[in-house]
Specification:
The structure is a single chain. The protein is 66% helix and 0% strand. By secondary structure, the chain is mostly helical. The protein has one domain. Helix 2 packs antiparallel against helix 3 (52-64), helix 3 crosses helix 5 (81-100) and helix 3 (52-64) crosses helix 9.
């Protein structure tokens, strides 16, 4: 990523994610966004990023802000088909991961906790699957669509684990540093 424009845009997105509680991604600089992007614009920008670490962070965004689900239709409408499909897949991963990690996520979200609505399970063929099977099926779908043999299920899980690990570290740090 040698293009300064690209990394500045990525840095802005990473800084914005950090302000929203998704602070596990490192930044190139100390950029602080002056204003928040609309949720639909933020989601669309995230899935269009060239680096996978930033694209996949949209999963953590949904876990940290389940209320953003209402902006999915607007984000999808603004994206070309390929990116819209990626957003649907990553949202579906967040939907499944929220079930899998609900006990760990709830204490951090408090009053903000709410279940993500089921938007794409039927379209993705994920109905009536337990979370592990659902992630596996979703990973297969993404591998076929992207023609890649990546461990997509592991990638989805890592997004949730990075988020939770960061929240645990912040909680520990806040308790030990009044």
């Amino acid at each position: 990523m040698n293009n300064p424009k690209v990394w500045k845009r990525e840095d802005r997105l990473v800084a914005e994610l950090a302000q929203l509680g998704v602070g596990y991604l490192s930044r190139q600089g100390a950029f602080t966004p002056l204003k928040k992007s609309r949720p639909d614009i933020l989601m669309a920008e995230l899935v269009r990023q060239p680096t996978s670490r930033v694209r996949v962070a949209v999963i953590s965004l949904f876990l940290a802000h389940p209320e953003y689900a209402e902006y999915i239709p607007a984000a999808i409408e603004s994206l070309p088909a390929k990116h819209a499909q990626t957003l649907k897949i990553f949202y579906s991963a967040a939907f499944i991961l929220q079930k899998q990690f609900a006990i760990s996520l709830r204490p951090f979200l408090g009053a903000k906790w709410k279940w993500l609505p089921d938007l794409f399970s039927q379209e993705m063929g994920l109905t009536l699957l337990d979370p592990k099977e659902g992630l596996k099926k979703l990973a297969q779908t993404q591998a076929e669509l992207t023609k890649t043999k990546l461990n997509w299920a592991g990638t989805y899980n890592n997004a949730a684990r990075h988020l939770l690990r960061r929240w645990h570290m912040e909680q520990k740090w806040n308790l030990s540093h009044p």
